[in-house]
């Protein structure tokens, strides 16, 4: 009888430890070690899983990079322009894509729509491990999707699944989800660190050897990060998150890792009775402003991936009734808010130390770039003075600690996008001022925070 060996794996960095301990010595995280049991005897097919992991097993030896034939792996569309945008232009044969999101975000719906539309043109397979075949069919019928061409399978054993894939040879395979898959020879339960890691490695190797597009559905933790070992994100080629709260009509698809395109690309979908519908012009859904101007509201232009996005930022400044004024930022970094308020006091002459400051980015958008600094301060100043800003004004620019207004990337493209939506006035960094006048747009270029305040 084979001897059993106990190992401990960190769920954050994937490092192995011989015994349990409170802190991982490699990444420094606490309470991340999980126990799993492995057998000391090797499984019959274990060695084969590690041969030719990144491609064809028939290696041709060392080659020059210029001699690699790229015509063998052409991209093909998924049928959704927003999905293709996030992927970097389409699906790449042999790629492994991990899609995560909170329960109810629409991961299974998005993939089911994609496969039902592609099934008429190529062989595809939807593998379900969490739902029954009847449940998937009921959802597809409710969404009004074509049902005649899509092939579906209920299987959780990786070895049996790959045998069926070799027989049917689909071009695209969806695994829903990777947490329920298991590999024979590993005694831990499905969803554990070892099973998720081995199942993903087995399926990824199969996809690269056969040129199959592999789409894996992954669960997320309470913090919103992908569940399972951290090494899972290193195995796959693309990591995509489908974001959006349960009470929102919109979902945002964001690329976190992409070996075939730009990261931080954004795709926006609307939730309808017929599933997820693409939003061709995302700026329009984030600019549903009232007809009357309101104090504390200003429109900024942020850059998401390869396109500009117009988003409204709102601020509420009110007298604090407690000794410690509140600083709340939704959609922005709260530490950045505290820093900018200090700059406003020192270089703008506006003291908000005794005021509660609330900042919100409309539409649930999360802004991580510093180009929203100037818009945040002008919105807070507008609310503090109870002085509405004009409706046709857009603002962007980074604010430095010495009060200077720094330029941001793709400044002229942002101004042109705002002009397309009918905005007539822009306060921008001096280095982002356009060389040629833009029809219908008055550009005010500033290089100091005090100058921007005076131009309001």
Give the tags.
456 residues; 24% helix; globular; alpha/beta; 11 helices; 7-stranded mixed β-sheet; 9-stranded mixed β-sheet
The profile of the biggest β sheet is: 9 strands, mixed
Residues in β-strands, percent: 25-35%
Helix content: 10-25%
Strand order of the largest sheet: 6-5-7-8-4-9-10-11-12
Ranges where pLDDT stays below 50 over 5 or more residues in a row are 40-47
Number of helices: 11
Q: What's the gist of this structure?
A:
The protein is of the alpha/beta class and 456 residues long. The chain is built from 11 helices and 21 strands.
Q: How is this structure best described in words?
A:
It is a single chain. The chain has 456 residues and is an alpha/beta fold. It has helices at 81-87, 107-118, 133-142, 158-168, 193-210, 231-235, 282-285, 334-348, 373-385, 411-420, 449-454; strands at 4-10, 16-17, 33-39, 96-101, 124-128, 151-154, 172-176, 213-218, 238-243, 250-258, 266-272, 275-278, 297-304, 307-319, 327-330, 355-361, 393-395, 398-399, 405-406, 425-429, 442-446. The chain has a nine-stranded mixed sheet with strand order 6-5-7-8-4-9-10-11-12. The radius of gyration is 26 Å and the shape is globular. The N and C termini lie far apart (80 Å). The model is unreliable at 40-47 (pLDDT under 50).
What order do the helices and strands come in, and which of them pair?
Elements: E1 4-10, E2 16-17, E3 33-39, H1 81-87, E4 96-101, H2 107-118, E5 124-128, H3 133-142, E6 151-154, H4 158-168, E7 172-176, H5 193-210, E8 213-218, H6 231-235, E9 238-243, E10 250-258, E11 266-272, E12 275-278, H7 282-285, E13 297-304, E14 307-319, E15 327-330, H8 334-348, E16 355-361, H9 373-385, E17 393-395, E18 398-399, E19 405-406, H10 411-420, E20 425-429, E21 442-446, H11 449-454
Parallel strand pairs: 4-8, 4-9, 5-6, 5-7, 7-8, 13-17, 15-16, 17-20, 20-21
Antiparallel strand pairs: 1-2, 1-3, 9-10, 10-11, 11-12, 13-14, 14-16, 18-19
